[in-house]
ER membrane protein complex subunit 1
Amino acid sequence: MAIRAFLLFLILFVSSTTFALYEDQVGLMDWHQQYIGKVKKTVFQTQKAGRKRVVVSTEENVIAALDLRHGEIFWRQVLGVNDVIDEIDITLGKYVVTLSSGGSILRAWNLPDGQMVWESFLLGSSPSRSLLLTPANFGADKDNAILVYGNGYLHAVSCIDGDILWKKDLAQKGINVHHLVHPEESGMLYALGVGDRSQFEAYVINVGNGKLLKHSSTEFPGGFSGDLSLSTSDKAVALDSSGSILVTISFVGGEIKFQEVHISDLLQGFSGVAVLLPSKLAGMVAVKINRSLLFVKVKDEGTLEVVDTVPHVEAVSDSLSFAEGQTAFGLIQQDGGKVHLTVKSSDDWKTHFLKESVEVDQQRGLVHKVFINNYIRTDRTYGFRALIVMEDHSLLLLQQGAVVWYREDGLASIIDVTTSELPVEKAGVSVAKVEHSLFEWLKGHLLKLKATLMLATPDDVAVVQRMRLQSAEKSKMTRDHNGFRKLLIVLTRAGKLFALHTGDGRIVWSRLLNALRKSETCESPRGLKLHPWQVPHHHALDENPSVLVVGTCGHNSDASGILSFVDAYRGEELNYFAPVHSITQIIPLPFTDSTEQRLHLIIDAEGYGHLYPRTLEAVGIFQKELGNIYWYSVDVNNNLLKGHVVKKNCKPEIADDYCFESSDLWSVIFPSDSEKIIATSTRKLSEVVHTQAKVVAEDVLYKYISKNVLFLATVTPKAIGDIGSVIPEDSWLFVYLVDTITGRVLHRMSHHGCQGPVHAVFSENWVVYHYFNLRAHRYEMSVVEIYDQSRADNKDVLKLVLGKHNLSAPVSSYSRPEVMTKSQSYFFTHTVKTIAVTSTAKGITSKQLLIGTIGDQVLALDKRFLDPRRTLNPTQAEKEEGIIPLTDSLPIMPQAYVTHALKVEGLKSIITIPAKLESTTLVFAHGVDLFFTRLAPSKTYDSLTEDFNYALLLLTIVALVIAIFVTWIWSERKELQEKWR
């Protein structure tokens, strides 16, 4: 009885302990980071008591309210990719008003929580710039109107409910409205613009009913260049077409008058071309001349007076009104890592409200924008804070001579991702710092013991969870035996590299690349791709890995290229080449030199290949494989698919010894009047396939595994537009599997009444693609599996034993393959943004599709649901094989969401990285947000879970040993008693 009671207590203890382990597991294997992107416009809300905030709009189409104390996000709304935010403002002290989509959509958001209050669609006749004006008062009866100009129309919209009060068509040929001006205590509105023939246009409109009171048009002989700068409510300043004359334009009552002043008369020794800054300065304009700013005051009579010339000004803010009739603006000067902030009075240039210097990390680059705001100090004087946007898209708040907080919002615009292994932990060297004292260590174990015994309070559970999240094992800067700890190297649109630790997502290092910064030789640099450059294996303790960053100096195909080589551990830019030849394609080759640098062939716009690294050893390795290097190109604009081969060195008069000529092997031209290319997909070069054979219902099929197979999708020309823009009878979707070595079409399939966009993923011998079925009014997902029939004779065991098989025979793409395909289609309820597939170290673990949904979540779908062999009534053999009965729709289970209840706002891409542990794959999803987690598609069959209770196991073993020992004693005693009878 004692043993039974003990075992019952043990079972209850195990069950209760297992149940109690789940509460503090959140965040152990995943992390989620929220960002907003590069800030474009801001509106401060600090007048009322309570939490101070700033509302921003960004280049990632995000509207967010940030806490001015800590920079945290109060609320955030992410608009669509094409719904670009043009203007933002605050009205009635409680609504955030946004104008987007080229002036077509006006929305009001609740300031405290960000919920949308109303939405208005403003139609127009012709594209134009977008303008938003929210005056403080229109009069007693129209004090709630918002003025919007967009698509050639001027609208007055109620800020209470979004109703359109009136609209006026201003779309005339060649007229471009630049400003809306509403003088205080006036019932007139001025719409100012410039025509095609350098005519200045002024519309005078009644703000109460929208009637046109007056329209004036005057031509300026010299023509205008750039934008108009509004200095006062009745005067504007513009530059002439030569950029050497400032023109003051007076439009009082609709009467237009011009006054010209040569910049050379204002500034002695002026030469070159001036640029008028768009900053709104009260009674003043700023003119950029080389690296200096010329501040010019506009007097009442329209004359101009130079106030000052300030050198090396990086950014100027708009004017800020505070107190009674006082206005100020801020300007930023920068000297290396030192940022100088000056807040000046718009009325008296000699008055400085603030002048201070702040040290800023030089890896943030130059200041791009500055926004200022005032506050009242404890001594009742006015202080100023500055919100600055840096070159790397980070956001900083400066106040009282220090950086109060910063946000790394460049991570909201990731272009490409690669990974790097962490360094090996050297024996006898402590690589992790001791973070806790002995008392804290004991305290932590006591709290864990309380949680195990279900005696912990919610506060204790929170402490245990925080300790687990900050555990040294998770965040160590060395490799682990399971391969979970890695560096995610990400390239952002700002040209900055970040190294993120997969353990907790922290930034290990960041580097603003010199090669991707604006310079005289490269006016508009942009990053393209990341590639592993050097991955040391044999001397991993002596050499650091490095990555290759590829970029161009523009968006044209013939733009000069940029190459940068960066140390993956320290973030140092080892070397860079800029500008070089144009770059249209980067081909990583399966060869390395003696230093384990991987060879890359970079194709330029003329079809020449350039070999890197540029060493004689690399050329020698490449020359041995000359004639075996194939590549293909897809020209979407010309509907052309081509195959190429590298043949010989370039002619000496063309290039150097590292240049190689290529020739066209084949081409596939899709007739433009019948098909248009919309999508392509290929296998990952690094993908591992465990076995070529697949057992199918007591039979064997051999997968057609080739890294040279391309999936290509085309549609009929009428189906190019958005979903629903064509009737099903006129819409066809065609898919092809093409061998890129020979150009042979291995498989072709058509879907009548279907339309793109098409998202596809290619893995092993199968491809899955997603599209829209117009007939069924639903999305579909189709799967195509391709098998090699030339090896079908290898099923005879005797032939295999005698060696009369072709499994070890070399495979050539030029031998005509005998292939067989199996396909199936299923309905799918979600719109898809991107698709990826899990990848593991040896390719043994079953596959899962990772689907980025329209709701910005990641859904894991077992590949077995997309098996083309599914039938309504599978046989017993098929059931044993794991075939799922056929259904017309793919199931979506709530537990299958990898992101759980979180959202990866603005989801762009999903990257999978194999861990050393075969059962596990690492998943990184990025958009405006970042999300990382670990997945085990076939469960963790090769390891114990992290929440496994080793202490309980030890306790169980000890208890069983004691129980065995006690029962052995009892048995011996009982046997002895029986012998005495």
Q: What stands out?
A: The radius of gyration is 34 Å.
